[in-house]
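Hello Y.,

Per our agreement to keep a running log of every chain we model this quarter, I'm adding this entry. I've kept the format consistent with earlier entries: sequence first, then predicted structure.
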Amino acid sequence: RFNYPLEVYSTDEVFLELPHIESGELRKICYAMRETVLRSVGIPISIGVSYTKTLAKLANKEAKSKDGVSVLLQESDLELALERSSIGDVWGI
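Predicted structure for the entry above:
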């Protein structure tokens, strides 16, 4: 049974809280979710993980240009992602 807070934001976007899970384990979970959706539905998805919804959306944008998964939990990774983005790319601004 699924017991994590889930917010369906739109028809193609969901926010999920996965507290207390180590970064490496989060990556494994994200790749498993991505593979499950691709196998079950036939649609490739991208997954972005970070501390806030805004940062998760930024991570998702990065995931689309990589292998479909981006986990931005380290300060250095967050700084690089923010440096690569224009202010207009940041959700809510």
